[in-house]
Prior knowledge:
Layout: H1 2-25, H2 38-48, E1 53-62, E2 65-73, E3 79-85, E4 91-96, H3 111-123, E5 127-133, E6 142-147, E7 152-159, E8 164-172
Antiparallel strand pairs: 1-2, 2-3, 3-4, 5-6, 6-7, 7-8
Amino acid sequence: MPTYRIWIVIILGLTVMIPGLIVFNQIPSPVPQARISFATALKEVRSLYPDAQVLTVVPDVYNRTASYRYRLRMPDGHLWHIYLDAKTDHILAKDPIIGPAGSSPIAPLTSRQHALDIAYRAVGGGKIATVKTNKEDHGRIYIVELMLSNGQYAKVQVDPKTAKVLSLKVEKVDH
C-alpha cells in the first residue's frame, strides 16, 4: 500500500513539473548589447556598397547576434537585406529580397532617374528646372538644370552610365 501512494505522488509531481520544464526551455537567451552605433555601422555599409541606396535600417537579431538590418537598393534595382554585427561591425549575411511569387523583379533605376540622383548629390538638392539629353552624344549625357534654395541656378552635365559629373556650373539668377 505505501508504494501505491509513492507512485501517485510521483505521477502527480511529474504532471505538474513537465509543463514547467517545457516553458523553462523556451526562455530565450539574452542578446548582448550593441557596441557599434548606427552612425558607425552606416559608414561601414556605405563603404562596402558605395553605389547602393540605403532605404532603411533597424536593430535586429540574426542567429542570436545583435545586428543592424539594412535594406539596400543596388544599382541594378534589386533589393537586399544586409545584416551587420552590432559588436564587431562585420557582415553577417546578405539576403536578396524576393517579391511575391509571380511578380516581376524590381525595375532598375532608369538612366534619367540615375542622372537626376547624381545631379542632386552634386549640388546638395534643389528644384528641377529642366532635364535634357545631349543630342551630339545620342542622348547618353544628361543636362540637369536646378534652382537651388540659395537663389542660385545650377547646370550639371551627368553621364549616368559611369555615374560621373562631367561639368557643373553655378550661377546667380538675375532678377
